[in-house]
């Protein structure tokens, strides 16, 4: 299911990129206090939708019906209706923040679109044909989180939005390449048909959970793609001032570090799932401190 993100990580502890909605800041101690209620309300909305889509024993059709009801509730409170008794703890706070901050409703609906897409694709055993299709999924599963946060900060120029999208997509992709040993047995396939064909891999081979020279090359190529996205978006972290900018630096470094961990396994993530631990935090902090713009305006955020 969508795990986004700037899929920012919780920075009160070293981030585990698989934690529940792990790439969301969840009103961390680096976030300005005035924004914490809005961020917490958005997170509660996303986490509850994630639970509807992914937890328990409901069928795919039952999950889709619940998400449809969840969407209807979102639209109702956005139009000024009081929250219904079904999810008052979610839509009560969200209604306040929707109107206080004029949150873009479409971004919240995009997240629900992505949850629904994951359910349908798993149910129907559908696959992503190419990276363009996978990026379109990330546009709705990950990028809305960064755009919602930028909205709270009052940043809406095209360059910043594009860099936010690159960070969020990079974090989502990092999560995908971290998790094939978890996702594939559950019927979730994020390696595209085009990439499998390029590396001469049959999809059934992935289901065996065995790492081969070809699958390692596939993962390595996709890791490079995720890293390039994070590097593309990294300059945004230097534009945002104060604690929020430092949080975003650490978010980027959390994504880069999990990619390092994948590489340390020689990209053998069909059989193992790398994790971040306490020893990774000093590396992330050091790299965050060293993030500076290069002469060409880019940043290498992975060194």
UniProtKB/TrEMBL annotation:
It comes from the Bacteria. Keywords: Transferase. Coiled coil: none annotated. One of its GO terms (molecular function) is geranylgeranyl diphosphate synthase activity. It holds the Pfam family SQS_PSY. InterPro entries: HSQ_synthase_HpnC, Isoprenoid_synthase_dom_sf, Squ/phyt_synthse, Trans_IPPS_bact-type, Trans_IPPS_HH. Its EC number is 2.5.1.21. GO terms for biological process: terpenoid biosynthetic process. The keyword Transferase applies. This is Squalene synthase HpnC. It comes from Xylophilus rhododendri.
């Amino acid at each position: 299911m969508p795990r986004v993100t700037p899929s920012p990580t919780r920075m009160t502890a070293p981030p585990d990129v698989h934690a529940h909605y792990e790439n969301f800041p969840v009103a961390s101690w680096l976030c300005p206090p005035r924004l914490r209620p809005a961020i917490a309300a958005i997170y509660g909305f996303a986490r509850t939708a994630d639970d509807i889509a992914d937890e328990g024993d409901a069928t795919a059709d039952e999950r889709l019906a619940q998400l449809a009801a969840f969407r209807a509730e979102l639209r109702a409170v956005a139009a000024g209706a009081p929250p219904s008794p079904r999810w008052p703890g979610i839509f009560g706070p969200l209604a306040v923040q929707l109107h206080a901050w004029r949150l873009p409703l479409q971004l919240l609906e995009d997240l629900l679109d992505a949850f629904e897409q994951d359910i349908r694709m798993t149910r129907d055993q559908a696959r992503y044909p190419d990276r363009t299709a996978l990026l379109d999924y990330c546009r709705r599963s990950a990028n809305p989180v960064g755009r919602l946060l930028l909205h709270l900060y009052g940043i809406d120029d095209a360059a910043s939005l594009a860099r936010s999208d690159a960070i969020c997509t990079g974090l989502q992709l990092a999560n995908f390449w971290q998790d094939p040993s978890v996702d594939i047995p559950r019927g979730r396939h994020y390696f595209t048909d085009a990439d499998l064909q390029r590396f001469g891999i049959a999809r059934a081979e992935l289901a065996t959970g065995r790492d081969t020279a070809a699958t390692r090359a596939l993962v390595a190529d996709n890791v490079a793609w995720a890293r390039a996205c994070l590097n593309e978006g990294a300059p945004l972290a230097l534009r945002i001032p104060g604690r929020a900018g430092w949080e975003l630096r650490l978010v980027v470094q959390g994504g880069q570090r999990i990619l390092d961990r994948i590489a340390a396994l020689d990209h053998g993530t069909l059989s193992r799932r790398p994790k971040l631990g306490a020893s990774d935090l000093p590396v992330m902090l050091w790299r965050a401190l060293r993030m500076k713009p290069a002469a060409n305006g880019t940043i290498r955020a992975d060194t």
